[in-house]
Amino acid sequence: MHAALITVTIDPGKEDEARAMLDAQVVPMVRQAAGFVAAYWLEPHDGKALSIAVFDSEENAKAGAPPAGMRPPGSPVFVESVEFHNVMANA
To answer: Is residue 91 part of a domain?
Structure first.
C-alpha cells in the first residue's frame, strides 16, 4: 500500500466553503479512485490542513492525488505539497 500525504492552505474566512466542497466533491471523488483503500482529512489548524489517502499501489496513489501547486477553479483551497510514502504498517 502507498499513502499520499497532502498539505493544503485554506483561504482565510473560507473554512466553511472548503468543508462543504470537501464533503460534496472531494470525498466522493477520492472514494471512487482506482485502488482506493482509505482516506482521512484532518481538521484545519491556522489555515493549513492535512489529508492522508491510502491506495493499493504507488501508481494508484500518484494517479489519485492532486498535484502540488494546484488550486481547483473557484476553490478556497491551495494544494501546498503532496508526498508519497510506502505504508509500513497499519492497525
So the answer is: no
